[in-house]
Fold these 4 entries.
Entry 1:
Amino acid sequence: MQRLHLLVWQPRIWLAAHFGWRPRLVIFLAGLFSALSLAPLHIVPALMLGLWVMFAALDGARRADKPLRSAFLRGFVFAFGYFLAGMAWVVYAFLTRGEGLQYAAPFALPALAALMAVFWGLGAVIYCALAPRSVWRVLVFAAALAFAEWLRGHVLGGLPWNLPAYVWPAGGLVSQTASWFGVYGLSLLTLFVLTAPLVAVTPRLELGRCLPAFAALAISTIVLATGAIRLAASAPEDVPGVTIRLVQAGIPQTQKWAPGGAELTRDRYLSLTGREGIEAVTHVVWPEGALPSFMLEDGATLARIGESLDEGQVLLAGVNRRAADGNSVRYYNTLAALRFPSGTPRIAALYDKVRLTPFGEFTPLSGALAMTGIPALQELARYEFTPGPGADVLDIPGAPSMLPLVCYEAIFPDFVGSAETRAAWIYNLSNDAWFGPTSGPRQHFNQASYRSIETGLPMVRSAALGVSGVVDSLGRARVTLDPSAEGVRDVALPGRLGRTPYSFWGDSPFLAFCALVLAGMAWQRFRLSRAARHASMR
C-alpha cells in the first residue's frame, strides 16, 4: 500500500493542486501515451494510466478559480494528445494525394485532433459541473465522457474513430458486449472499469472508497463470462454454394495514378482474378476504387473481365461512376455487381456511397475555400462526389442478400442499422492505400469488425493496401490478407446469427443510462444549491 501511495497518491495530489503549463504538459503526454491502447498494439493499461491522470486533473480543476474553463482545457489537452498520436496516419494521406496538398499535412493532423478534442473538453465540463464529492463521481466521469463520444459520432455528420471501446480487439471476450450495448455502451463500461480503481487508492485503506473498484471488478467478471459463453456457442454453418475470391493487388496510390498506372492496375487485377481455381469461385471481390478509371464506361476492360469470368460468376467491384444531371455531371463512389452472360457485361446491382469522407470525397465549406484564391484549396473544393440516397440491402445473384458498406461507412453503427431490411452478410470495400504502412488500416479493420458483433452478420472485407479478409458473425477474423501483400484467397461465406439485442434497441439503453446519471446529478446539484440559498436567507 505504501508503494501505491508513492506511485499514485502523491502524483494525484500534485495534479489536483497545480495549474499552469506543467500539469498541462503531463496531461498532454498522458494522452499521447494512451494512444498505445489502440490497434494494432491494444496496450489497454496505457489508456488506464492516461485516464487516471485525466481523472485526477479534473478533480483538481474543480478547485480552480474558473473550474469549468480549467476542466475544458484539461480535457481538451488530454484528448488532443490522444488523437494526435492515434490519428497520425492522416498525414500520410495528404502526402500521397499530391495536388499541392502536401504543405497542408503538418496542419491537417493538429486541426483534426483539436476538433475531436473539443468533445472531450465538453465531457470534462459536464463532469466538473455535475460530479458529487463522493467516490461515485467516477460513474459521472464515465457517463460524461461516453456521452461526449456519442456526440462526437453524430454532430456535423460525426467521426466516431478510436472510441474507448476499440481498445479491445474485435472478436475477443470483451468485445462481445457490443452485441448488447454497442460500442458506445462498451465505451462507457471501459471508461468506468479502467478509472474506478483510482478512487480506492488512498494513504489509508477505506472500505467505502473501494466500492466503485468492487463494482468494476463485478462488471469485468460479467463481461468476461458472457463473452466466453457467446464465443463458446456453436458458430452457424457456412452458406452453401458460395465461394468468394478476395483479390489483393498491392499497388500503392502513387503507382496507380502515375502515367501508365491505369493499364498496370487493370492488368494486375485481371491476372489475379484469373488465377488457378477460378472455375470453383462464385463471386470475385475488388476493393473500393480498384481501377483509376470510369470502369463502367470502359468497354475494353469490361470485355477482358468477361473473358475471365463465366456466366454464373459475379464481380463485386468498387468503381467511380458519373451520371449526367441536366447540364452538369454528378460523380459517385459506387459498388457495382456485374454479371457477364455470354461475355456481355450486365449490371446486377448498384450502391452509391452515402457517408462521404470529408476532404477526400467532399469538402466542407467548399464555397469559402473556392474564394480564397489559393490554387490548391480551389482544386480541393472542386473535387466533389454526390452521396447516395441511403443504406440499402442488395440482392446479389448467387448469394444471400448483402449490406454494402463503402470505406468508412463501416465505422458508423447507426448507419449499419438504418437499412430497412436485414441482410445475410456485410461487404465492406475500402481503399486504405491512402494511409500506407501506418496504424490507420489496422484501426479501420478492427472498427469495421465490430459491426459484425453488433449485428450478428459476417463480413467480407476488401481493402486496397488495407486488411482484407473474412470476419465471422462474432467479429473473429477467419482469414486476413496482409495489407502489403499481393495475391488471392478463396473463402467460404460464414452464416449469420440471429438478431442481437443491440440490433433491436440500438443506443437507447446507453443514452437512457447517461441521461439518468447526468440528469440525476444535475437535479441533486440544483437541490443543494437551493437549500444553500435558503439557509443563507435565514
Note: The chain has three domains: 2-233+507-537, 243-354+389-503, 356-388.
Entry 2:
Amino acid sequence: MIDQRRTMSQVHENGSARRLAIDTIRTLAMDAVQAANSGHPGTPMGLAPVGYTLWNDVLRFDPTAPDWPNRDRFVLSVGHASMLLYAILHLAGVQELDGDGVQTGNPAVSLDDIKAFRQLDSKTPGHPEYRRTTGVETTTGPLGQGCGNSVGMAIAAQALGSRFNRPDFALFDFNTYVFCGDGDMMEGVSGEAASLAGHLALSNLCWIYDSNSISIEGSTEIAFTEDVAKRFAAYGWNVIHVADANDTVAVGEALAGFAATTDRPTFIIVHSVIGYGSPRAGLASAHGEPLGMDNVRSTKRAYGWPEDAQFLVPPEVAAAFTAAVTGRGKSARREWEARLAGYGEIFPELAAEFELLRRNELPVGWNGGIPDFPADAKGMASRDAGGEVLNAIASRVLALMGGAADLSPSTKTNLTFDGAGSFEPDDYAGRNMHFGVREHAMGAIANGMTVTYLRGYTGTFLVFADYMRAPIRLAAIMAVPTIFIFTHDSIGVGEDGPTHQPIEHLATLRAIPGLNTIRPGDANEVVVAWKTALMQTHVPTAMILSRQAIPTLDRTRYAAANGLTRGGYVLGDCEGIPEIVLIGTGSELPMVVAAHEALLVEGVRSRVVSLPSWYLFEQQDAAYRYKVFPRDVRARLAVEQGGAFGWDRYVGSEGATITMSTFGASAPLAELQARYGFTIENICAVARDLIGKTR
C-alpha cells in the first residue's frame, strides 16, 4: 500500500508545477496503456509538454460549457495518442454533456474512465470518438482525417463569421488547433487538405506537427525523407520550428507566432522524442505497444515520480490546470454571451437565424420553393433535377454549403442563385466551395464543416466514391448529416468506359452502417430524397444521381414519390396477387415500369417496386416490408445497372437480377444497354422465364 502523503511529498521535491502537470499526463498515459495492455504510450509522452502548454496557456475553451459555439477547436489527428487528450480533459475538469447538450453533473473523463481505457463501453476508446466523449470535436483514427476535418472547421469559422459578425459583435472568431504526426504527413489526404487551406489563406488554422521520426515499422528514414517544412511553405503556410518539444517557452512563442499571423495558416514543427524519458525512448515499440511494467517503473523513476504509484494525479495539479483553462475560457465565454445578448437586440433576425443553427433546426418554410416536376416521357437527368432542388433549398437554408471536386458543372452541385458566391480568400461569405480535384480531403472537410454548425455537402462522380470511403464511413460513425452527392451513377456514363462506370460502388455504400444511400428513380423522387436528407440530424446521406435523362413518371397513374421516405414502395400494381415483383432503382426504374406495363398487356400480373433506399426500407416494420414483397410471390426480378451483390436479400433464393458482372465497356449508352440486357424486351423475357420456374 502506497503512503499517499509520502508520495505527494516525493513528487513535490522533483520539479515545478508545470513539470508536475506534464509528468502527470505522461504517467497517466503509461498507466492506462499498461492496464489495458493495449495502446500507444509514446506519442502522449512526447507531446505532453505541447498539449499542456496549448491548453493551459492558450486554448480558449470553457470546461464548464464545452459546447460554447465560439470555443477554440482542438483536433487530435494522431488519434492513436488518445490518452493525451483523455488526460487533458480529465485534468481540465471538462464537464460531461448528454446527447441533448445538457450537463449530466459528471466529468467528461473521470479517473475511473482513464482506468477503463480501451474497455467495452468506456468513454475512453482507443481512438477519440465524437459524441461518445465530451470534449472530442471529431472522430479521428485513420491518419490524416483529423487534418481534413480541421480545414472544414476553419472554413466554417470564416463562413459563419462572414455571415454573423458585425462591428463590435464577433460571434465567430475561434481558432482550430491540430496535433498531427509523421503518419498524417504521409497520408495523401493531409496534403490535399493543406493545399486547399493554404490557397484559402485560413489564418485561423494551426497544425502542430510532432516530428518524432518514428513509425510502426521503425525510423521514418525507411520511407519518409522529404522536407515537410518546404512542402508546407510551398502550400502557402507560415512554418515555425520548435527544436525541443520539452521547451514550453519555445512552444508558447510558436503559438504566439500563429496568433500574430493573419494572412495564412500556420504549421508548427515540434521535434520530440517518442516515449520521452523511457529507457526505450526512440523505439517504435514505445509507439505501438505498452512499455511493460519494468519500463514503466524505470521511466517514472527517471521523471522523479513514485515508481509504484498507479494513476497518480496530484490534486494541486488538477486544481491548477482546471483553474487556468476555466479561468480564461469562462471569462471569454461570458464576454461572448454578453455580446450575444446585445447582438440580439440590434440584429434580431440574425440572432434568430444563429439560434436555429445552434439547435440544428431548419428555418420555417425551408422547403417552400422546391419545384414539382410534371410527367414527361423524355424527362431529365436526376443530376439536373438535383441541381434545381439543391438551389431551391440552399436559397432558404443558409447553413447548406459545399461544392464539388472540380466537377460542379457536371454534378450540378453549384449554387447559382443571386448572392451565392464562391468561398475564396477574398470572400469568405461565398457559399460555393471549390475543392479542386481532392475527393478524399473534400469528404473530410465537409465532415468538419458539418460538426461546426454548417450542413456540408460534396459532389463528384460515383466511381470516385472509392477516394472518399474513409470520410463517408467516419460520417456514419460520428452520426453527422453530411450529404455526399454522386452523379454519373452507372454504365450510363457510356463512352467514358469502364474506368468511369461504377459497378460495385452502390453495394459498398449500402454496406456502410448508418449511411442512407438513396438512388432516386425520377425527378420527383429526387425532391423527396433531398427533403429526407435535410431532415436528418444524425444520419449522413449518399445521393446517387444519373447523367442521362430519365422519364419523369406520371404520378396520377403511379404511386406518389413520397413513398421514398419509407425506402421502398409499391409504385405500380395489378389486380389480385402478383405473379412477379419487378424491382427498380435510379435510371432503371422507368424501364422497369415500361416492362411492367408490357407484361400487364400480355395478361401477366406484375407489380413494380421502387426501392431507392435499402437503409430506410430496412427500418420499416415487417408488416410493411411483407406488404411490399409478399412472401408467397417467389418470382422477383431486380434491375439495376450495378453489381448484383446484396440483391439476394430482396429477390430471394429463387429470384433473379439483371445487373452487371463486369466493368462495362466504352460505347454509346444504347449499345451498352443492349449488350448487358437493360432493355424492356429482355426484362419481360427474364420475367416470363422466372414465373415459369417458380410456379
Note: The mean pLDDT is 94.
Entry 3:
Amino acid sequence: MGNASNNNEKLIRLLEEQLDHSNQQNKDLSKKLDQSTKQIEALTEQIRHLTKRLYGSKTEKSKYNGPEGQFSLFEDDPSFSEPEHTEEQSQQTISYTVVRKAQNKKRNDSLDDGIEIEAVHHHPENLVCDCCQGQMIEIGSTVTREEAEFVPARMKKIQHIEHAYECKECKTDLHQKAQIKRGKSPQPPIQRSLASPSVLAKVIYDKFIQYLPLYRQVKEWERYGLKTNDKNLSNWVIRVSQDWLLLIYEQMKQAVMTKSLLHVDETYGQIINRSDGKSGQTNAYNWVYRSVPSQGPTIILFQSSLSRSRSVLENFLGDFSGTIICDGYSAYDKIKGVTFANCWAHVRRYWLKVESKNGKTGVKFCDDLYRLERQFKHLPPSKRRKQRQKYSKPIVDKLLAWIEGLPFLGKSAIAKAVQYTFNRMDGLKAFLNDGRIEIDNNPAENAIRPSVIGRKNWLHSVSEAGAQANAVCLSLAETAQANGVDFYQYLVKLLTDLPNLDIHRDPEILKQYMPWSQNIQLECGK
C-alpha cells in the first residue's frame, strides 16, 4: 500500500514537471509567435510602402474631407504635386474641359496691349461691277482674324570709335603745346571680349531662367551670327560673376545677416574638379537661404559647397543671431546664437508613408494644423500668434499625447514617423510662439527648386569657380523675380553701369542697384 502511494506521488510530480515544461514551451512559442507577427506586420507595411512608391500616386494631397465637406488642404498649394490620373480619368477630364471651352468661348492665348500692330488689308482684285460694269465703292471692313508674328532676334556689331581733337590756334603757336581731347568709350564688362552687356545678360538669363545649358546655346548664337563655344560662354559667366555680380551678392548677404529669421535648405549637385581630391561622382551641395516677407524685401541666396557639414552653415552665417526654419537634418542644430524651428511638411510626409489607420490619424493632425494656417495666413504676426495659441496649440498637444502610446522602436514606417515627430517636437512647437515663423520650410524648398531643375539640365559644374558662379547668378535671378524685377533688364543694367562706376572707392553706390531699390524698380520692374 505504501509503495503504491509513493509511486502515485512520483507519477504526479513527473506529470506536473512535464506540464510546467509544456507551459514554458508554450510561453516561449507564444513569445516567438508575437515576434514573428510583429516582423510580418513590419515587412507587410514595408512592402505596401515600397509598392506605393513604385506604382502609386506621387501626390501629397490629403483624401480627408472635413465635417463641412472641405476640399484637400493642399489643393491650392504649388509645393504639392498634382495626382496622377488613370487613362479613364484623363479622358473624362479632357472631355469636360472641351465642353467648358465651348461654352465660355475664352481664348487661352493673348498678346500684351503694348504689342506693335500691323494691319494687312485685303481688297478685291476687280473693283468693277459684274452687272453694269460700274466702279464699286467701299462700304465697310471686317477684322477676320488676328495672329502673332515672331520677328527673330538679330545680331549687330557695335564699333566704339574714340575721336581725337586738337586746337588749331595752339598748334600754330610754336611756344605752346597744342591741346588734344579724345572721346572716351565706356568700359566693357569683360576686357578684350566681344561680349556686350546684352549678350552676357542673354546667356545668363537663358541658363538660369530658361534652364538652357550653355552647350545648347551655342547653335542658337551661331544662328544669330555669333560663333562661339560652350567653354567660352562658361568663361564669360564666371568672369562677370566674379567681377561684377558678386558685388551685388555680397551686399545682399549683408542685408540677410541683419534679419532675425531665415529659411534654410540644401540639395546635392556635382563638381567634377574638386579641390578636396574626392571623385567628381561625390556629391557637392547647394545651400539656399531665404528671408521672410515680414522682415522686408525677399532675399534669396545660394551657396555652393563641397559638403553638407555644420561648418558650412556656421561659416556662412557668421555672427547671425536669430531663428532658422529648416527640416530635421542634424547639421541644423547646436549653433551658437541660433534657435531652430522645424518643418511640419516633413512630419506629414513621414505619416503619409504609414500604411495603416495610425498613418491616416497622423496625417489628419497635420491637415488640421494646415487648415488653420490657411485661415491665419493674412493676419499680422501678433494676431497670428494669438490664434495659434488658441486653436493650433491644443492640436499639437493632442498629437504629442497620442504618439506617446505608439511604438518608438524598430524600423517600421510608423516607428520612424513617431521618432521623427517626437524627437523634433521642440522645434515643431516654435511656430506657436512667434507669428512670423511659417509652419513649414516650403519657401526654402520652393526657392531651391530652380537649382534642382537646373541640375537635370546642366548635369554638373566642371569647377568650383563655375559652381560658385552658378550660385551667384541663381541668387540674383531668384531675388530679382521675387521683387518683381525683369532679370534680363536687370542684368543689362548691372553690366552696363557697374564697370563704369567707382564702386571700390564708394561701395554705398551698390545699394542703388539692389533688386528692391527704387532705382531698379523704376527701370527694370515688370
Note: The chain has a mean pLDDT of 83.
Entry 4:
Amino acid sequence: MGKLKGQVARDCAVQGTNDSSIVSKCSMAALGYFQDDFLSSFVTKKSRRAPLINRGYYIRARAVDQCVRDFLLQTQDYNRRQVLSLGAGFDSLYFRLKSDGVLRNAVVCEVDFPEVVRRKAALITSSKELSELVEIPEPARRPPSGLVALHGDDYTLLGVDLSDLTLLDHGLNEAGLDPACPTLLLAEVVLTYMENTRSSAVIRWAADHFQSACFVIYEQIQPEDPFGKVMQKHFCQLNSRLHALTQFPDREAQRRRFLERGWEECFIVDMNEFYYGSINESERRRVDELEPFDEFEEWHLKCSHYFILRASKGSLARTESVYHSAGFAVYGTPEISGTVPAIVCSTDSPSTGLRRFGHCSALVTKEVVLSTGGFGEKCGHHQRLRDINILVRREQEWVTDCQRGSDAQWDGRLFHTMTWLPDPKCALVVGGRMSPMHPCSEILCLTWEDSPDKEACQVGTVATCPEDAPLPRWRHSATEVVFRGDSYIFIHGGRSVLNPALDDWHFLHPKELRWVKIPVEGQIPEGRHSHSACSWDGGALLAGGLGAKGLPLNSVLFLKPTESGFIWQIIETNPLIIPRYSHTAHVHDGRLLLVGGVWIQASSVPGVTVIDLSTGHSSEYEISTTSLEWPLMLHNHSSVLLPDEKSLLVLGGGGNCFSFGTHLNRQPVLLDLVEIL
C-alpha cells in the first residue's frame, strides 16, 4: 500500500532537514571548527552561519567522530568491521575516514530515502576526488533490486525507508553486510523523526540482527522547559515533529529505551558534559578564538537539549564509558522548597518595547521603571535597541509610557550596567558593547525629571580621566558601596575583547565622576562575567557568573567594608547552590535572592534561590508559569524589587534559540514573593 499524502509530505520535510544541515556543517568546517575537506562537495550553495550555529554543529561533529573512531580503534584487530549509518543524508563521514586511512578492513554502508541517496550518488560520481576514494569496480556491481544506488569496494549507498525493516534486511544483504561482524550503527537526528513504535522497532531489530554491535545516536531531549518548547515549535512548523520527545524526554528514558530492547549497556551524556568532559581546555580555547562569540546562554541551553548515546552488546559491550567527565560536576535536580507564582502584569500589546534582552532596568520611583538598551524587537525587526523604555504603574498594571520615553538618544549598547542614584535623580551607565569587537568606553548619565511638562529622561555622555579609566568591558557588574561615609559605584569583572573573564575591580565616585583607588584585601576572586552584584551592609554581594574556563560558578562573595577599605569574604551556602549565571539578584531583609539565569549541571530550570545571609542556608523555589501563554525565559532579563509588596517585576529576557528562532518574553511578569519572604 502506498504512503498516505500526509506521510509523504512529512518525509519530504525530513529530507529537507538534510539540505539545511549540510550547509551548516559546511559553514562550520570552512571556518576551521572541524577538519573536513569533503563537506563542500555536497553543497551547491554555501552560506556562512551564525557563530552559535557553527558551534552547535562543531560539538555534534566532534561527539559523533569520537564515537566512530573509538569503535574503529576498539575493533582494529578484527578482519572485518562495519559502519552502518542510518539516515546518513549528505554526510561526508566515509570520505573523511577513508582519507585519514582509518578504514582498514572496514566497510561503510549509508542508508537514506531513495531520493536522497540518488542525489548523493550523482554528486559522488560527478566528482573525480570522491569517486576515486570510493573505488567503484569496473564494471560496477549493481544488485538487481534497485535498492543500491552506489556500490564500491568498501562503500555502499542504500535507498531504503527505515520504516520498512524487511526491505532494509534485504538491502543490507545485497550490500554484503555480515550480521556476525562487529558493527557500528549511527543515527544523527534520525530516529526522532519516526513514530516511536517504528523507531523502537529499529532499535530492537538492530539488537536482534547483529551479534556484536554498538548503536550511537545524537538527538534532542528536555522538551518541556522554555527552550525545549521553542525547539518543539520550530520542528512542528517544519512538519518534522520530534516524536521521541513525548515518550523519551530525558537521558534516563533514552537509556532505558535501549536497555529494554536488547542492548546490554548504554552510556549517555548531554553535550555540555561532553564538551567540558571530553574536549580538552586547549581545544576549547582554539574554538573560542575562531570568531567573535557572545551567546553563552543559548550555547549552553542548546547543548543541554542534545545528547550523544552509545549502546552496545556482544563483544563490544564494556563496563567503562567512552566519555570522561572530570571537572564537570553534575548536581542533579535540587530539592524544591515551594513555588513562586508568575503573573502577567501589563495590558500592553505583545509588541511592547520591553521585548528585549541584554538590557538594564532601574526602579526610579515606586511607580516608574526605567529600562535601557539591549537587543530586541523594533518595528518588526530584531536589532540593537536605541530607545529608553519607561514603564509606569497605573492602578495594578504596568504600562509603557510612550509619551515620555526617549528615542534616538541611546547609543544602542547592550550588556551594560545602570546604577540608579536617588540623589541626584540620575542613573550612571557603565560599559556594554555594540558587538563583541566593539565595547563601549563612554559613561552615560540619565537624568530624570518629575515635571509633566518636561521630557522625562535625558541622556548625556560623562567625561572621565582616560588615564584612570578601566578597560572597556561588558557583562560586568556594578553596585553602590560606601567607604568612609561616601558612596561609590563598584565595578567588577566582565569581558573584554581579549579577556574572556576579567578579575579586576574599580571604584567610581559618582558625584565627582572620577575613578579612585580604595584598598581591597583578601584572595582575589576568580575572573567572571554575567554574574550579579547587590549592595548590602555598605559592601557588595557577588554571586555566580561564568568563569574563565567557560563553566558557571556557584560562589557567593561579600566585599566587606573595613576602616581602611574593603576585604573579600566567602559566604558558605548550605546546601551548595547550583552554579549559575545570567541571573538577576536582590537583597531583602537579610536574604539574597537569585532570580532565573542558566545552569548546565542540573536538569531543571533555575527559579528563585533564597540565601539567608546570616546562616548561609539556601532554598530553591520553582517559578510557576501556568498563567502564562508563552515560555518564560529567565536569562538576560532584568528585574526590580518592589519591597513594600514583596514582589519582583521581571522585564524582558530571552535570546536566540540556536537555529530555532529568537524568543523574547512578551510582557512584564510579576513574581509574588510573599510566601518565601
Note: The chain has a mean pLDDT of 91.
